[in-house]
Amino acid sequence: MEKIRVGILGASGYTGADAVRLLARHPQVEIAALTANSHAGKPLAEVFPHLSMLKLPDLVTWEEVNWSKLDAVFCGLPHGTTQEITAKVLASNPAIKVIDMSADFRLRDMDTYAEWYGGTHRAPDLQAEAVYGLTEHYRDKIAGARLIACPGCYPTATLLSLVPLVKAGLVDASEIIVDAKSGVSGAGRGLKQNTLFCEAGEGISPYSIGKHRHAPEIEQEIGAAAGAGEPIAVNFTPHLIPMSRGELCTSYLRLANGATPDDLRAALEAAYRDEPFMLVAKKGVMPQTQNVRGSNYAQFGVFDDRIKGRAIVVSVIDNLVKGSAGQAVQNMNVAFGLEETSGLLQLPMFP
């Protein structure tokens, strides 16, 4: 089998670099193009010395790439920049598969996108064909998709733990509270005051309270799982933790239809029994970000709440792997009919 030739848009960012790290050891992939307009002309090793042992093409501007020579492209660009570039890439090569790690194609409703991202969607026709890339729940659609919109890191951790419970009618979808915490890499590689060492270190801080852009994405998928005729609202608050990578989401749930926390755990075990990356912790075992760091695994734990009729679900992922580049590679594997775990069997790093 000929190797799949891939390009990575935004290879100088954290998600782009992790995509390179994973794809470089994928047995059926050749990295044929790397773009980073601000670093064009440089070898990637100059931007990311930890990848200096790899033989890779130099960074170029996205306009310089011959997209007709590629089979797939991973988009690791900031939101708002991917739509027009994706349209041009697909126009030059309609057969290419686009695996987008930005937020530009995640929201199905154009008005919702405009409300949360501050502008009209510039590729509505493409949005209509985009498939939401939560692999474990959209695998069949991803298999035939040309444009895959990979979920955000917070939605990935939250939805993987809650969608099976909502679908089974075990929790009240209208009363979900998510307390989320992410490592600093989730903010991207650009210079921002709040992510400087002295600002983020030795403390924890909430941000975007009541207005984080991942909230409507979570609500979209929870609503779909619930079959809700009306919009679902989720109480979602993110926090910045002084660590490089990792994500932990604690969801506070009201039980429904007589369910118990043990029923929730059993539902997750049943939903993910055959899933290679889904780990449901045994009763009493607490998920930790250390358990999945550097890997494509997700771990879930279910706990009794001391408040009657409620339960607490904890989920952890590596925000750059299962929350971004790893899930993107998993989606590529599905889209090309490859073994889904190819290039993704790295075990968690500890300590």
Plain-language structure description:
Residues 5-145 form the Semialdehyde dehydrogenase NAD-binding domain. GO terms for molecular function: N-acetyl-gamma-glutamyl-phosphate reductase activity; NAD binding; NADP+ binding. Catalyzes the NADPH-dependent reduction of N-acetyl-5-glutamyl phosphate to yield N-acetyl-L-glutamate 5-semialdehyde. This is N-acetyl-gamma-glutamyl-phosphate reductase. This protein is α/β, with parallel strands linked by helices. It has two domains: 4-129, NAD(P)-binding Rossmann-like Domain (Rossmann fold, 3-Layer(aba) Sandwich), CATH 3.40.50; 154-319, Dihydrodipicolinate Reductase, domain 2 (2-Layer Sandwich). Helices cover 30% and strands 21% of the residues. The protein is built from eleven helices and 14 strands. The chain has helices at residues 14-23, 44-47, 82-92, 110-117, 124-129, 135-143, 153-167, 197-200, 215-226, 261-271, 321-335; strands spanning 4-9, 29-35, 59-60, 72-75, 97-100, 131-132, 147-149, 171-182, 205-206, 235-240, 247-255, 278-280, 298-304, 310-317. It has a seven-stranded parallel beta sheet with strand order 3-2-1-4-5-7-6, sandwiched between helices. The chain has a seven-stranded mixed beta sheet with strand order 9-10-8-11-14-13-12. The longest helix is centred in the middle third of the chain and has 15 residues, at 153-167. The chain is globular and about 60 Å long. The model has no long low-confidence stretch (mean pLDDT 96).
